[in-house]
């Protein structure tokens, strides 16, 4: 995922198949060795000015790996995935674009 | 000799005329609207889902006035099996005229939301509310228990659920709703011309696909292309089953509005009959994540659940208030949509399409093909 913050720890996102209007999960891995105190996940459709209809549920799996469940993209098009993190007091946001057919 | 030549000519002419108009990309997109029918999965929150005795009892109760407090109505009074499980009234008539159009009850198994405003998250809850709603069947739990006990269905009911006298009235209500739900799960629309087209494309049988009328093909191209219909009407049911503002006025009178999804969520979150509640029969509470994590927003106001378009030609009039009399009127509504009137702030999806008469006819031909048997 990309971040506007300089020298931000790397965050990797893994997704299986995303089916339109069906729930899916994503796996987030913080690649650098930092203490993670918070992870929040959200998504918006920039073209339609709306976001997710359901709040993603975050589970910490250990080793700086997090799973977000109950993600649901209810329309086809460009979604911007947003991850907000807090690394020991330092808030950093990441985004990643997903195009759904 | 001459006869043979003519015959060959006719065949050739036919082959030239019928062709598949879709691009490779469009063909790929077509596949996402099937396959049809959807394979049935029984409802884990309803222990009598897919039970033949419950289905038979549900079907009988659906058509019997015993479910209304004074014997004045049956479910079928509004959801008429002879009229695709709806009626041609713009708004339903119960004890008074209701605020909304009666939806057809086909293809409801396994949805995430029920009702125009999504006030139920299961089919059994959506079948329960009309029994006790004062403008519909108007029973209380107690009067329902008495009515079922004294009815000719008591043996069937007890064969499934045991002695009714030791059941709390609320349990009788939920059990009754679950038989109705078991029945409603069996109602589905059949295969259509569109499904044959879609399957032929999947099998790369372009000759068979070319049997789908060209007007319907052009209408479908508009549907997934410039018309943007596919943004909300997608998947095998032609619905994302979420809530949107399609530009239909939501005023009930000069002073009252239909708050749509906003009111639906208020209702859902304040009643006991959800997949997260004690009346679900699923120990794992699958599906409860929906009511637990659904977000509320002021833009829910005046949005309605995207209706499925399967069998749509049989269920006029249209929209939550039945205000559009036929498919032509619906297409013209989208073509001329007044974006100033879109109330749900934010969603910038619909815009005036300014369709030509030819395009309107093509879209109608496509929508009608979703009802036509192959």
TrEMBL record, chain A:
Protein name (Swiss-Prot/TrEMBL): YtkA-like domain-containing protein
Organism from which the protein derives: Ruegeria atlantica
TrEMBL record, chain B:
Annotated EC: 1.11.1.5
Cofactor annotation remark: Binds 2 heme groups.
SUPFAM superfamilies with a match to the protein in the record: Cytochrome c (SSF46626)
A Gene Ontology cellular-component term: periplasmic space
Source superkingdom: Bacteria
GO molecular function: cytochrome-c peroxidase activity; electron transfer activity; heme binding; metal ion binding
Residues in Cytochrome c domain copies: 53-217, 214-371
PTM comment text: Binds 2 heme groups per subunit.
Binding site for heme c 2: 229, 232-233
InterPro entries: Cyt_c-like_dom (IPR009056), Cyt_c-like_dom_sf (IPR036909), Cytochrome_c_Peroxidase/MauG (IPR051395), Di-haem_cyt_c_peroxidsae (IPR004852), MauG/Cytc_peroxidase (IPR026259)
Keyword annotations: Heme, Iron, Metal-binding, Oxidoreductase, Periplasm, Peroxidase, Signal
Binding site for heme c 1: 75, 78-79
Pfam families recorded: CCP_MauG
Main location: periplasm
Annotated signal peptide: 1-18
Cofactor(s) required, per the database record: heme
UniProt-annotated location(s): Periplasm
Record-given protein name: Cytochrome c551 peroxidase
Record organism: Ruegeria atlantica
